[in-house]
Amino acid sequence: MFEDAGGARRAVRELLAAGADRAAVTIMSGEPHLEGGEPLTEMRRTRIPYFSLAGGTLGAAAGFALVYLTSHAYPVVTGGMPLVPPLTTGIVMYETAAMGAIFAALGRTLWEARLPGWRAARGDYDAALSDGGVLVSLRAPSAEEAALWEQILADAGGRDA
Amino acid sequence: MERLTNERINRDLLAPLLKTGWRFYAVVLVSGAVVAWALFAWGWQLVHGIGVTGKRRPEFWSLYITNFVFWIGISHAGTLISAILRVTGAEWRRPVTRCAEAITVFALLVGSMFPIIHMGRSWLFFWLAPYPNWRWLWPNYRSPLMWDFFAINAYLIGSLIYLYLPLIPDLALVRDKTTGLRRRLYAALSLGWRGTEAQWHRLEKAVSVMAIIIIPVAVSVHTIVSWDFAMTLNPMWNSTIFGPYFVVGAIFSGIAALILAMAVLRRAFQLEAYLRPRHFNSLALLLLVMSLFWFYFTFAEYLTVWYANEPAEMAVFWSKVRGPYSPLFYAMVLCCFVIPAPVLAFKRLRTVPVVAFVSALVVVGMWLERFLIVIPTLGHPRLPFNWRGYSTTWVELSIMVGTFAYFTLLYALFTKLFPIVAVWEFKEGRHKEISDLKFEISDPDYERAHSSHV
Prior knowledge:
The complex is a heterodimer. Chain A is mainly alpha-helical. In chain A, 50% of the residues lie in helices and 6% in strands. Chain A folds into 2 domains: 5-45 and 117-155, no CATH class; 48-112, no CATH class. The termini of chain A are close together. In chain B, 72% of the residues lie in helices and 0% in strands. The model of chain B has no long low-confidence stretch (mean pLDDT 90). Chains A and B meet through strand 1, helix 2, helix 3 and helix 4 of A and helix 1, helix 6, helix 7, helix 9 and helix 17 of B.
């Protein structure tokens, strides 16, 4: 546990220099003050905007399909007026596109953030994070490396290493 | 004054959740009693028919639809304003967003009840949804009422998600600070949030994406509500500017409702260190701008009708300007423009109590505006034999008052269960402020650039 993000950053850099696997390192904090710089832990590029766009397109298509197919399901006599007018159908498509984009963004966010993750929260998480500080956690493949990395974390200013 | 440390921020902002004062019980009791009375009135209407509300030809829409439009307007307080502030990176938004987003969700819930109550046979509410009847005939998608269904649902779902996503880290915080059943409840709601670097990154990205999606949805909602009126050929409804006019009015009333809610929360939970005068000042400036916009649209709308001098339109026009509705019309202009604009223009007057008072006037004024859009037009259809003055009954009034109490009750329960100020966003903002300050102090270029101003 580190007092601030700066200490955690230094510790992670030293761990990586000492040969720790980036994928094994996890940084946790009660607020996102690690944002802004290069991510220290392994992080794939987010695809939330692309999924949202795809969800929006699908939503619009679903809206059109709903209006078109259901309007043609029963032969209503309209006196020559269009059954599926583009302007009014566009309004329904607009709203279903928004719903599609919202659901896709939500689904992708949860998937990328690995939520729900109730079991993970019972693992290396420390409730003391809620009062501040930054937690650096990593899995060591052997006892020797664990001892070395504990020393690095302690030297960098970490508590309870 | 005690410094705003992490411990103090947690203590102050979680206090309403962890301690319950008598005021909370009083609010729940009073608003609950009013809601119970409104439920009785609604039950009365269900048993005796919609006629007990005093609805007669030609005023079939009356107070229920007035309130529907009003509450949908109030819902623009939150998600839309919060999204705009997020997208534009307005740092002062941080303590404001959660209060605002909650208003949206509850106002939409309350507003969307009115078409169901207004149906009379409310148990057939599912007829509003797109599903086929026994002849395989689906609803008419060319009807603005059907557009309402899609728009309000999209906005409600979007607003709920937009409220919930940034709430997850705060739910995890409450989980860490509570024990027993409450801990289990918040643990489930926080989805096992740990606050890893990847989770924060994803959350911020998702909130930004949601903010961008939700803005056009919010605008569409009130535009579509305005089209419920504008798509008819009724006098003073069939107007091309009704969409933007309604959106402007919605944002206007929404900001006023937000200021009012913030003033109440600030006082009730002693949040003076979080909801500061500068937040009220910024919102008051927004309110001033919207007051000017509202006046511009109202003036444009009335001027066009008056200049055209079309008899059916003029009947409605005169009923508002010098007829039976004129006291309400002038009260509306007073509450929405004549008082707010000059008062809010002076920085010295933009104090918390004055801004809250003006906001209360604006909320009243905007309710009157909705009333004056709905009722005079209905009372003056194109054929004069059908003209009639409006009167209401205790049933309609009770249900209307009950929905205000219902909103209060929902909001009070929300503040009891969830932090009403986004704790992590507030902390993040504070860290940003401090690091910006450190940068300014340590940067020699910054010092040089600003030394000439000293």
